[in-house]
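Hi! If you just cloned this repository, the fastest way to understand the data is to look at a raw example. We've pasted two of them here, unedited. The first protein comes first, obviously.
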Amino acid sequence: MANVLWLQGGACSGNTMSFLNAEEPTVVELIVDFGINILWHPTVGLEIGHQVSDLLNDCISGKTQLDIFVFEGSVVQGPNGTGKMNYFADRPMQDWIKELSEVAQFVVAVGDCATWGGIPAVPPNPSESTGFQFHKKEKGGFLGADFVSKGGLPVINSTS
C-alpha cells in the first residue's frame, strides 16, 4: 500500500475538487483497487491541529513512510523569502514542503499553481509565489532545477 500525503498551498483547491469528483477511477476505487493509503488530505483528513503536525513530523523522521507527496497550490515564499504569508501547523508551509520533499519517494505538483506558480506568480507577485520546480517557464522554482526525489525522479507535474 502506497502512503500519500496531500497538502495545499496558496490560492488553490480546484484540483482537490477534480480529484474528489473523479469517475474513472473514483476516489474509492483508487484507494481500494490500487492500494492507496491517504495519510492526510486537507479536505477529507480527519486529523486536526497537533495530530496533523505530529503526522508530518513522523513522515519527516521516517517513522511513517512517505511514498507520494502531493502538493496543490503555489509555494508562497513572501515576505522576503520567509514564507510567513502562508503558515500551516505552526510553521511556514514552505518549511514543511522542503522537508517532506526530501523524504518522499515521489513528489507530485498538481495543477498550474504547484507546477509553475500559476496566477499568484504573475507580476507584481507580492506573495513571492512560485511552483515546485518551475517559476513560470523557467526551471528552478522552490525546490530548484536539480531536485530529484528519493525515487530518482524530478517533480512529477500534472497541470490542468
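Ok, and the second one:
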Amino acid sequence: MRCFHFSKAALACVLVAHVSFQASVQAQESQRRFKVLAPAEMTQAQRDLVQNIRSGPRAAVAGSAANSNDGSLGSPFNVFLRSPELGDHLQKVGSHIRFKSSLGQKLNEMAILITARHWTAQYEWFAHHRLALQAGLDPQVAEAIAQGKRPTTMKDDEAIVYNFCQELHTTTRLSDATYKAMVDAFGEQGVMDLIAVNGYYVLVAMTLNVDRTPIPGDAPAPLPALTPAR
C-alpha cells in the first residue's frame, strides 16, 4: 500500500478548499425555496409518490433527480411532493412523455432544450443537455439553441421540430406550413407528442424557476442571458 504524506500547508489548503466548497453549496441550497424533504419528514402520501417515481424508468437514468441515495428526490419532484396526488399524475405524464414518445429520444430532448431556453430554466437545461447529446444531438445545435440562435447544422427532422417548437413558444400559434411539415413527417400522433413535451416541460421549467433549484456542485448557470431578456 502506498502512503502519501502532506505538508501542513498542503493539508490546510485541502481543508480550506473543502470548507469553501461546502459553504458554496450551502449558499446555493439556501436559495432553494422548497426544502428537500428527507423520508422521515414525509407523509405517507409523499412516501408513496417517492416510491412510484423511484420504481419507474427515471431511476435507471444516471444522475436523475429520482435516484438519490438518501431516499429524497431532487426537483421538480421535490416540489411535486407538496401536492402528492397531483404530483403523481404529473410524474406519470412526464414519464410517458420522456420514455414513450413517438418522436424518439433525440428529438424529444431537443424540444426540452428549446423549452428550457425559452424559459431560461437553468436546471432544466443542465439536466437535459447531456441527455440530448447522449441521444445524438449535435453539440453545435445545442450550443446555438443555448445562445438563442437558429442552428445552421440541423438535419431535416430536427429543423421541422425546431420550427414547430420555436413558433409555438414565441407566437403561441402555429402556421399552416409549420403544421403541415410536422404532420407530414411525424403524423398526428407526432404532433400531439410534440405539443405534450413542450407543454409538460413548460410546467417543469416554471416549477424549477419558482423553486430556484440550484445547479449541483455550485456550477455556473449554463444558459447566458439573452437580449432582450426572456
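That's it. A detail worth noticing about the second one: The longest helix spans residues 176-211.
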